[in-house]
Amino acid sequence: MSDSYHEVELRLVISDPQQLHRALEAAGATVIGQGLVRTASFDFADGRLQDARQTLRLREDWTGTTLTAKVPLTSQADEDAGQAKVREEINIPLPADTGATMRRLLQSIGLRESLAYDKTRTSWRLGQARIDVDVLADGGACYAEIEAPAAEIGATRTTLGLDRAPVETRSYFEIVRQVRAGKGR
Protein backbone atom coordinates (compact mmCIF):
# COMPACT_ATOMS: atom_id res chain seq x y z
CA MET A 1 0.00 0.00 0.00
CA SER A 2 1.43 3.36 -0.95
CA ASP A 3 0.81 6.70 0.63
CA SER A 4 1.04 10.18 -0.81
CA TYR A 5 1.17 13.47 0.99
CA HIS A 6 2.63 16.96 0.75
CA GLU A 7 5.94 17.00 2.58
CA VAL A 8 6.77 20.39 4.12
CA GLU A 9 10.28 20.54 5.50
CA LEU A 10 13.11 22.89 6.29
CA ARG A 11 16.72 21.64 6.42
CA LEU A 12 19.18 23.46 8.66
CA VAL A 13 22.95 23.24 9.00
CA ILE A 14 23.85 22.15 12.54
CA SER A 15 27.22 23.19 13.91
CA ASP A 16 26.78 21.61 17.36
CA PRO A 17 24.80 18.33 17.26
CA GLN A 18 25.19 17.80 21.02
CA GLN A 19 23.61 21.18 21.74
CA LEU A 20 20.69 20.29 19.47
CA HIS A 21 20.34 16.93 21.25
CA ARG A 22 20.13 18.74 24.61
CA ALA A 23 17.59 21.23 23.22
CA LEU A 24 15.41 18.39 21.90
CA GLU A 25 15.46 16.63 25.27
CA ALA A 26 14.75 19.88 27.16
CA ALA A 27 11.77 20.58 24.87
CA GLY A 28 10.33 17.14 25.64
CA ALA A 29 11.02 15.56 22.25
CA THR A 30 11.14 11.77 22.07
CA VAL A 31 13.36 9.58 19.90
CA ILE A 32 11.23 7.61 17.45
CA GLY A 33 14.06 5.81 15.66
CA GLN A 34 17.74 5.84 14.87
CA GLY A 35 20.35 4.06 12.82
CA LEU A 36 22.06 3.83 9.46
CA VAL A 37 20.15 5.05 6.41
CA ARG A 38 21.23 3.91 2.94
CA THR A 39 19.83 5.95 0.10
CA ALA A 40 20.12 5.65 -3.68
CA SER A 41 18.66 7.90 -6.36
CA PHE A 42 17.63 6.68 -9.79
CA ASP A 43 17.26 8.58 -13.03
CA PHE A 44 17.23 8.00 -16.76
CA ALA A 45 20.53 8.35 -18.63
CA ASP A 46 19.51 11.81 -19.89
CA GLY A 47 18.94 13.08 -16.32
CA ARG A 48 15.36 14.14 -16.98
CA LEU A 49 14.20 13.56 -13.39
CA GLN A 50 17.00 15.68 -11.94
CA ASP A 51 16.37 18.38 -14.57
CA ALA A 52 12.71 18.49 -13.47
CA ARG A 53 13.78 18.63 -9.75
CA GLN A 54 12.10 15.25 -9.24
CA THR A 55 13.52 12.42 -7.17
CA LEU A 56 13.12 8.68 -7.35
CA ARG A 57 14.72 7.28 -4.21
CA LEU A 58 15.26 3.85 -2.72
CA ARG A 59 15.90 4.00 1.03
CA GLU A 60 16.82 1.24 3.45
CA ASP A 61 16.78 1.95 7.18
CA TRP A 62 15.56 0.58 10.52
CA THR A 63 11.95 0.79 9.31
CA GLY A 64 12.57 -1.32 6.20
CA THR A 65 12.84 -0.48 2.50
CA THR A 66 10.89 2.33 0.84
CA LEU A 67 10.63 3.46 -2.77
CA THR A 68 9.81 7.16 -2.91
CA ALA A 69 9.00 9.65 -5.65
CA LYS A 70 9.19 13.37 -4.85
CA VAL A 71 7.68 16.05 -7.07
CA PRO A 72 8.35 19.73 -6.23
CA LEU A 73 5.40 21.98 -5.45
CA THR A 74 7.49 25.07 -4.58
CA SER A 75 9.76 27.00 -6.91
CA GLN A 76 13.53 26.83 -6.81
CA ALA A 77 13.58 30.60 -6.17
CA ASP A 78 11.38 30.25 -3.07
CA GLU A 79 13.54 27.42 -1.75
CA ASP A 80 16.74 29.39 -2.45
CA ALA A 81 15.23 32.25 -0.44
CA GLY A 82 15.10 29.94 2.60
CA GLN A 83 11.43 29.01 2.50
CA ALA A 84 10.36 25.50 3.40
CA LYS A 85 10.36 22.98 0.58
CA VAL A 86 6.99 21.53 -0.32
CA ARG A 87 6.95 18.29 -2.26
CA GLU A 88 4.38 15.73 -3.17
CA GLU A 89 5.89 12.60 -1.69
CA ILE A 90 4.67 9.20 -2.81
CA ASN A 91 5.97 6.30 -0.70
CA ILE A 92 5.76 2.60 -1.38
CA PRO A 93 6.86 0.58 1.65
CA LEU A 94 8.51 -2.71 0.70
CA PRO A 95 9.42 -5.79 2.71
CA ALA A 96 12.77 -5.61 4.47
CA ASP A 97 15.81 -6.75 2.46
CA THR A 98 14.21 -6.09 -0.94
CA GLY A 99 16.58 -3.28 -1.94
CA ALA A 100 18.66 -5.41 -4.32
CA THR A 101 15.55 -6.75 -6.06
CA MET A 102 14.08 -3.26 -6.43
CA ARG A 103 17.38 -1.99 -7.87
CA ARG A 104 17.27 -4.72 -10.52
CA LEU A 105 13.63 -3.90 -11.32
CA LEU A 106 14.38 -0.16 -11.72
CA GLN A 107 17.40 -0.90 -13.91
CA SER A 108 15.34 -3.29 -16.05
CA ILE A 109 13.05 -0.42 -17.08
CA GLY A 110 15.90 1.89 -18.06
CA LEU A 111 16.67 3.70 -14.83
CA ARG A 112 20.20 3.85 -13.49
CA GLU A 113 21.49 4.42 -9.99
CA SER A 114 22.77 7.98 -10.20
CA LEU A 115 24.08 8.32 -6.64
CA ALA A 116 24.12 6.37 -3.39
CA TYR A 117 25.13 7.58 0.06
CA ASP A 118 24.88 6.67 3.74
CA LYS A 119 24.01 8.74 6.77
CA THR A 120 23.26 8.13 10.40
CA ARG A 121 19.90 9.47 11.51
CA THR A 122 18.15 10.05 14.78
CA SER A 123 14.46 10.86 14.38
CA TRP A 124 12.59 12.80 17.04
CA ARG A 125 8.94 13.73 17.59
CA LEU A 126 8.06 17.09 19.15
CA GLY A 127 4.35 17.89 19.01
CA GLN A 128 3.33 17.75 15.35
CA ALA A 129 6.94 18.06 14.16
CA ARG A 130 9.32 15.33 13.17
CA ILE A 131 12.95 16.36 13.49
CA ASP A 132 15.52 14.19 11.72
CA VAL A 133 19.13 14.81 12.77
CA ASP A 134 21.41 13.46 10.06
CA VAL A 135 25.18 13.07 9.84
CA LEU A 136 26.40 12.34 6.34
CA ALA A 137 29.10 9.70 5.88
CA ASP A 138 30.53 11.89 3.10
CA GLY A 139 32.13 14.86 4.87
CA GLY A 140 30.49 14.28 8.26
CA ALA A 141 28.30 17.40 8.12
CA CYS A 142 25.23 17.49 10.37
CA TYR A 143 21.77 18.69 9.34
CA ALA A 144 18.38 18.86 10.98
CA GLU A 145 15.22 18.48 8.94
CA ILE A 146 12.07 19.85 10.51
CA GLU A 147 9.02 18.31 8.88
CA ALA A 148 5.69 19.66 10.09
CA PRO A 149 2.69 21.67 9.03
CA ALA A 150 4.05 24.97 7.66
CA ALA A 151 2.81 26.95 10.66
CA GLU A 152 4.72 24.65 13.04
CA ILE A 153 8.13 24.78 11.38
CA GLY A 154 9.05 28.28 12.58
CA ALA A 155 7.80 27.61 16.10
CA THR A 156 9.77 24.35 16.30
CA ARG A 157 12.87 26.11 15.01
CA THR A 158 12.52 28.76 17.72
CA THR A 159 11.82 26.22 20.48
CA LEU A 160 15.03 24.39 19.60
CA GLY A 161 17.12 27.58 19.43
CA LEU A 162 17.75 27.19 15.71
CA ASP A 163 16.60 30.60 14.50
CA ARG A 164 20.16 31.48 13.46
CA ALA A 165 21.01 28.09 11.98
CA PRO A 166 21.64 28.48 8.24
CA VAL A 167 18.99 27.05 5.92
CA GLU A 168 20.33 24.36 3.58
CA THR A 169 18.48 24.44 0.26
CA ARG A 170 20.49 21.73 -1.48
CA SER A 171 19.24 18.15 -1.45
CA TYR A 172 21.40 15.52 0.21
CA PHE A 173 22.15 14.23 -3.27
CA GLU A 174 23.51 17.66 -4.28
CA ILE A 175 25.53 17.95 -1.06
CA VAL A 176 27.10 14.52 -1.49
CA ARG A 177 27.90 15.17 -5.17
CA GLN A 178 29.67 18.40 -4.23
CA VAL A 179 31.59 16.82 -1.34
CA ARG A 180 32.75 13.97 -3.59
CA ALA A 181 33.81 16.47 -6.25
CA GLY A 182 35.82 18.37 -3.61
CA LYS A 183 33.46 21.33 -3.73
CA GLY A 184 31.74 21.00 -0.32
CA ARG A 185 30.59 24.31 1.05
Keywords, separated by commas or semicolons:
globular, 6 helices, 185 residues, Hypothetical Protein Pfu-838710-001, alpha+beta
Detailed description of the structure:
The protein has a single domain (3-180), classed as Beta Barrel (Hypothetical Protein Pfu-838710-001), CATH 2.40.320. Strands 1-5-4-3-2-6-7-8 form an 8-stranded antiparallel beta barrel, surrounded by 4 helices. It is 26% helix and 44% strand. The chain starts with a strand and ends in a 5-residue tail after the last helix. The protein has helices spanning 17-26, 48-51, 76-80, 99-108, 150-159, 172-180, and strands spanning 3-14, 30-43, 55-61, 64-72, 85-94, 112-126, 129-136, 142-147. It has 185 residues and is α+β, with helices and mostly antiparallel strands. A hairpin with a 5-residue loop joins strand 7 (129-136) and strand 8 (142-147). The mean pLDDT is 91. The longest helix is centred in the first third of the chain and has 10 residues, at 17-26. It has 6 helices and 8 strands.
Mean pLDDT: 91
CATH topology: Hypothetical Protein Pfu-838710-001
Number of domains: 1
- CATH-wise, what's the superfamily? Hypothetical Protein Pfu-838710-001
How do the SSEs run, as a string of H and E? EHEHEEHEHEEEHH
How large is the count of helical segments? 6
Radius of gyration: 16 Å
The helix fraction, in percent, is 25-40%
Could you give the order of strands across the largest sheet? Answer: 1-5-4-3-2-6-7-8
Distance between the termini: 39 Å
Beta-strand residue fraction: 35-45%
The computed structural class is: alpha+beta
Basic shape: globular
**Uncertain spans:** none
Strand runs, count: 8
Largest sheet: 8 strands, antiparallel, barrel
Q: Identify the CATH architecture.
A: Beta Barrel
The CATH class assignment is Mainly Beta
